[in-house]
Amino acid sequence: MFDVSHLLIAQGIGFISMFLAWWANAQKNDQKLLSGNIVAAGLTSLHLGLLGSPLGMANQLLNMGRFCAGRYCRRAILAPIFASLAILLGWFWAQHWSEWCAVFAAVIMSFALIHTSGIRLRWAMLVSNACNLSLSLHLNSWSGVIYQVITIVIIGYQIRESLRLPQYQSA
């Protein structure tokens, strides 16, 4: 039976996570970006679990681990471990092509969070958010769709600003 209160709670948790992640993704400091996303991933895990995606929930728990590793212990061996775990989660739980897009995004971020920083990390996040948008659409996650689109704009703006060359100034 469809329970509207259950749906509203799930969407509410998603919106809280969305606002927290937007704050984190708008940070120019990588450490703040990673710390905010640790908490947001935990809330998103709960949101996706309530919406009925065990893969999305497990993937976000794995995201918490990835963000923690990127924040606190950048050991190269962790990237292939996180990527392998993401693929294993997909193997067991992916039921739709959009879930495989989320697995692909997880693999990208497994390496990006350990091996990159600054603008390269943001490029990886841009690709990851584009891939995760398909899962949000498939699950009818209102906060997920809004989050992915706005985050793509935020990160795209940061990338554009980093590529901007100084204007030619005439004497």
Structure write-up:
The protein has 171 residues and is mainly alpha-helical. It has helices at residues 4-25, 30-50, 54-72, 78-93, 97-115, 118-139, 142-163. The radius of gyration is 16 Å and the shape is globular. The termini are far apart.
Which descriptors apply to this entry?
single chain; 171 residues; mainly alpha; 82% helix
Can you count the beta strands?
0
Strand content: under 5%
- Write down the secondary-structure element order: HHHHHHH
Report Rg: 16 Å
Largest sheet data:
none
Task: Describe the structure concisely for a colleague.
With 171 residues, the chain is mainly alpha-helical. The chain has helices at 4-25, 30-50, 54-72, 78-93, 97-115, 118-139, 142-163. It is 82% helix and 0% strand.
Q: Which helices and strands, and how do they pair?
A:
Blueprint: H1 4-25, H2 30-50, H3 54-72, H4 78-93, H5 97-115, H6 118-139, H7 142-163
